[in-house]
Amino acid sequence: MLSNVFAGCVALLGVFSPVSAQIRGAAVLYMTTTGIVYALLLRDVDVQTPAYANWVLHVIVPILVIVEWLLAPERTTRAWIWLSFPLAYVAYTLLRGPIVDWYPYPFLDPRRNGSGEVLLSSVFVVMVIAALAYAVSWVGTKLAQRSSVVLSHD
């Protein structure tokens, strides 16, 4: 939900004024992560969201955000900064979970899977997000360079 809210705010702000490439890149990273995590870990899991909303939030919106990035790419730097939110979210979730006796996703719930599996899942997800961060930055930069070369020749 937080990724969708962030992407929605970025899109809304973009209607009124340009949004920095760093902020747009972060939205692309978070929504790509949302789509991948849903496809690999949550597709058949009841996360207490109606099926249509689940499909829109976890499939359609990530695709739209990625397509928008590919159509209007920008050069980004410091993609590693984008990792601060996912890392903080995982840490917050794992610290808060035992206090409130609730975890937002089964793969983060040590009561179901044990602490070792949750740690492995968390490390894996963070590694995937890190790889995606650099992929988003690299693709955006390469496509933006290609666009500027094409535009300068016109």
Automatic annotation (TrEMBL):
Signal peptide per UniProt: none
- Residues that span the membrane, as ranges: 52-72, 79-99, 119-139
The record's section on Pfam families has: DUF202
Q: Which InterPro entries match?
A: DUF202, Pr6Pr-like
Which source organism does the UniProt entry give?
A: Lentzea indica
Primary location group:
membrane
Q: How does it sit in the membrane?
A: Multi-pass membrane protein
- Please list the residue ranges annotated as the DUF202 domain: 71-136
What UniProt keywords are attached to this protein's entry?
A: Membrane, Transmembrane, Transmembrane helix
- The identity of this protein, by name, is DUF202 domain-containing protein
What does the UniProt entry say about where the protein is found?
Endomembrane system
